[in-house]
Design goal:
Low-confidence stretches: 1-7, 18-29, 32-36, 223-229
Number of helices: 11
Distance between the termini: 18 Å
Number of domains: 4
Mean pLDDT: 80
Radius of gyration: 33 Å
Helix content: 25-40%
Largest sheet: 9 strands, mixed
Number of strands: 25
Shape: elongated
Length: 520
């Protein structure tokens, strides 16, 4: 009986092992994932630097036009300076907070571009939100204010929607379901590498918004009054990270063009057809880093050629998906096992999954796996619909299928504070005991929480001569005779609840261990 007592040293050790194992699973951020964040971080930093350079050129043009015709361009130039000042202020605020987070994890010599502890899960929350700190709230307020300001400048509704989407601070559907704020979804239990990358993405989105606002202000000036004095080549990829089997797509253009003629574009030694309209496409059949280099040529009015070179690169990675049973690496036969499935960069509605040895269905943010045969593997295969319409397999994971473990019987009562308690054996006050109406059964071991239906049980009482008096209940409730015997028990007397038959969600009937009760 002691082995089944939840307060025994053996049971305490088992519970502790569960907690440690679950904690290890939660903290086990793979090095491949962290390396992926580092790759994305480098790409975002390069993109932010390119956007900064582009924005400086736009501001230089505005400055030139303002010096030539200050009265005509004054209103637009003043607004452009405000755009730059507010952008730099928000950008630098994020940079300072990013450095604080890194130094919280890596020490006072920490460098945002050379992380020593990329898997640190506490630094971001401690700097931005913990102990009454308002960094997260200040960041959200700053982004909201900046987004509203930029939206008043943009004239193109499509541009405005893109900026508002990029700088949206509403929590995601999943975050709302977990009752998390936008700040908590960014910084709570977020690995250092991911937090830094997310903040760099915000900086990138802010620079992009600045560029669109400056470009809009520049268009408000009648460019027919001026000659273009700076022209640059630009490569605008849909994404610099491509999955193997997909494709790399980029737009290559000049920052200023003549609508009466099309430039000649040469990419990796090949001339881009005019019909491509500046869109460069190529396959991604193998993984690795691939260059995109070349030049753009366009005729000048004096017959000479204007030539601008460009150079960038993109990365092809293996398709990947996350398939994780919330019950670790085991599925239980006949039971609706919750499973999480996610594919980085692919919306949930474009993800499909199938399973062998059972059924798999979607249930909101989770999937539900219900295997059928015990001892036979269940294979879950995930596919995703790509942007070009293709369907590609992303991952497959095998799970072991086991029978549900046996539950344990208990009697439920309410303590003096009104809290529900579960009694699994030992001493119990008679005043509580006579008010307990039934015997229950469940698995509640911090991993599973499954209720069972009690079909029948037997009580054994002992008279003054030591003879046993059995009483059977056909159901979970105590019979009138059983209740009568309980009421007649004096302090220190013991009776036994045995032969408990319980049925679980898998439809299997089990005879489970007894409960020994002593009247306190």
């Amino acid at each position: 009986m002691a082995a089944n007592n939840p307060n025994s040293p053996r049971q305490k050790m088992i519970n502790l092992m569960y907690l440690v194992f679950i904690a290890m699973l939660a903290l086990n951020v793979s090095s491949e994932v962290l390396d992926g964040f580092e790759m994305v971080e480098e790409s975002l930093l390069r993109s932010a630097k390119s956007s900064t350079t582009r924005n400086e050129l736009l501001l230089d043009d505005l400055d030139t036009y303002h010096r030539i015709a200050p009265e005509k361009t004054g209103i637009w130039y003043k607004k452009a300076k405000e755009v730059k000042d507010r952008t730099d202020s928000l950008y630098n605020f994020i940079e300072r907070k990013k450095l604080e987070i890194v130094r919280k994890a890596d020490g006072k010599e920490g460098d945002t571009e050379q992380l020593k502890h990329p898997d640190d899960l506490n630094a971001a929350f401690e700097v931005m939100m913990a102990s009454g700190k308002t960094g997260g709230k200040d960041l959200k307020a700053g982004i909201n204010s900046y987004r509203e300001f930029i939206s008043t400048i943009l004239e193109d509704s499509m541009q405005r929607r893109i900026i508002e989407s990029n700088l949206n601070t509403e929590p995601s559907k999943k975050a709302k379901g977990n009752k998390h704020t936008w700040e908590e979804s960014l910084f709570w239990q977020m690995p250092l590498a991911a937090a830094v990358t997310l903040m760099t993405k915000l900086q990138n989105d802010i620079r992009y918004a600045e560029g669109e606002a400056l470009a809009t202000l520049l268009k408000n000036i009648d460019v027919g009054d001026f000659k273009v004095n700076q022209i640059t080549a630009a490569v605008i990829p849909q994404s610099q990270i491509v999955m193997r089997g997909g494709g790399y797509v980029a737009e290559i253009a000049l920052s200023a063009v003549d609508s009466t003629q099309k430039p000649t574009i040469v990419v990796n030694g090949n001339v881009l057809p005019e019909s491509a309209n500046g869109i460069y496409r190529t396959g991604a059949s193998s993984t690795g880093t691939f260059p995109v280099t070349g030049y753009i040529e366009m005729g000048r009015g004096d017959g000479s050629l204007l030539r601008r070179e460009f150079s960038t690169q993109y990365y092809v990675v293996e398709p990947s998906a996350t398939i994780a049973s919330t019950l670790m690496n085991v599925l239980y036969a006949g039971y609706a096992n919750p499973v999480r499935i996610a594919v980085p960069g692919v919306a949930g509605q474009n993800i499909s999954a199938t399973m062998t040895n059972g059924t798999l269905s979607r249930n909101g943010e989770l999937w539900v796996a219900k295997p059928s045969k015990i001892g036979q593997e269940a294979m879950i295969v995930v596919t995703a619909k790509m942007e070009d319409g293709r369907t590609q397999e992303m991952a497959r994971t095998a799970f072991r299928v086991r029978a549900l473990p046996d539950p344990l019987p208990y009697m439920e009562y309410t303590d003096e504070n009104g809290n529900p308690k579960k009694f699994r054996g030992g001493r119990l006050a008679k005043s509580i005991l006579i008010n307990v109406g039934e015997v229950n059964a469940a698995i509640d071991d911090d991993l599973l929480n499954i209720s069972y239906s009690v079909l029948k049980f037997e009580t054994l009482f002992f008279d003054a001569m030591g003879n046993t008096i059995p009483e059977i209940s056909n159901g979970s409730a105590f019979s009138d005779r059983q209740k009568d015997y309980i009421r007649r028990l004096s302090r220190g007397k013991t009776f036994l609840i045995r032969g408990v038959v319980a049925r679980g969600p898998d439809g299997v009937d089990r005879t489970i261990p007894p409960i020994e009760v002593t009247v306190n």
